[in-house]
Each structure stands twice: as structure tokens, then as C-alpha cells.
Design brief:
The protein is an alpha/beta fold. The protein has a domain of 107 residues: Rossmann fold (3-Layer(aba) Sandwich). 21% of the residues lie in helices and 16% in strands. A 5-stranded mixed sheet has the order 1-3-2-4-5. Helix 1 links the parallel strand 2 and strand 3. 32% of the residues are buried.
Length: 155
């Protein structure tokens, strides 16, 4: 599947890949991307912006399409639906995803444990403990915002 994307910043270094919310497009990241002094790829997810339409829309289909764009190493930032796609990518490609930022991702992803954070896969490997790390960082769960209490810090 052909995805449209906007590339800004230096053409070297580990890129940050920005994934938008449902009904949005890569341009939603323009202001944010302009403030970063690094390589940025803002992607139009399938069926959004200038990207091709798919016969079937699913998070898995979106993750597959984005995976084809990724370099050896990337930092992923996803907003809402884009956050769900970013989590799937981090689980599938733990050696490629160096950093993961998920903002305002509300709905549950299939395959999660009933006792785990809603929507954060329990899985195994590098990103399997994401919900525990977010809890330790004081992240706000179960509603809007998604910004950790007391500011941002590395986890």
C-alpha cells in the first residue's frame, strides 16, 4: 500500500515517525514537527490525507503499511488511533522502535489481559511492560489528556 508522508528536518539520524488520529492527516503535525531539530516523517495513515485507500481498514493493516516505511531505528509518536498503531508497531518490531510516545489512546487493543491497563498490550519482549512503565511515570489513564502528572520524564 502506498502511504503519503511529509519529511522535514535533516535527512540523517534516527527519524521520529508521527502517526495522526482518526479522521486527521499528516499536516496535523506541521507545527510540532517544525519545532524538532531532527528528521521527521509525518505519515498519512491508510485512507487519510493523500494516502491510498484500503479494501479493509484495521489497526493491523495500518501497522503493516507504516512498517514498510520504517528505517532500521525509529522513534514513534502516535496520537489516539495513531497511538494504537504505534503500540502495535513497537510490539512487532522491538529492535527497530527506539522510543515510543502514545498520547490520548483510549480504546482497548485486542489481546490484552483483563487485569492490565486497558488498551496497553501485555505481550512479552521490550514493549511488553509498557503499562507498568507508564504507571511508574504517573501517566494519566482512562480518559483524555494522557500527559503524565508533574511533567514529562524519561522512562
Amino acid at each position: 500500500m502506498t502511504l503519503a508522508f511529509r519529511e522535514t528536518g535533516p535527512r540523517t539520524g534516527v527519524p521520529v515517525v508521527l502517526l495522526h488520529a482518526l479522521g486527521s492527516k499528516s499536516g496535523t503535525w506541521d507545527d510540532f514537527a517544525s519545532r524538532l531539530d531532527r528528521r521527521v516523517l509525518a505519515v498519512d495513515l491508510p485512507g487519510h490525507g493523500d494516502s491510498a485507500h484500503a479494501e479493509k481498514y484495521s489497526l493491523e493493516t495500518m501497522a503493516d503499511a507504516v512498517a514498510e516505511l520504517l528505517d532500521d531505528q525509529v522513534d514513534l509518536v502516535g496520537h489516539s488511533m495513531g497511538g494504537r498503531v504505534a503500540v502495535l508497531l513497537a510490539q512487532r518490531l522491538p529492535g527497530q522502535v527506539r522510543r515510543l510516545v502514545v498520547e490520548s489512546r483510549h480504546a482497548r487493543i485486542a489481546g490484552t489481559d483483563a487485569g492490565a491497563d486497558p488498551g496497553l498490550p501485555s505481550g512479552d519482549g521490550r514493549w511488553g511492560g509498557a503499562s507498568g512503565a507508564l504507571r511508574q511515570a504517573g501517566g494519566v489513564r482512562g480518559g483524555g489528556g494522557g500527559v503524565p502528572r508533574g511533567g514529562l520524564r524519561s522512562v
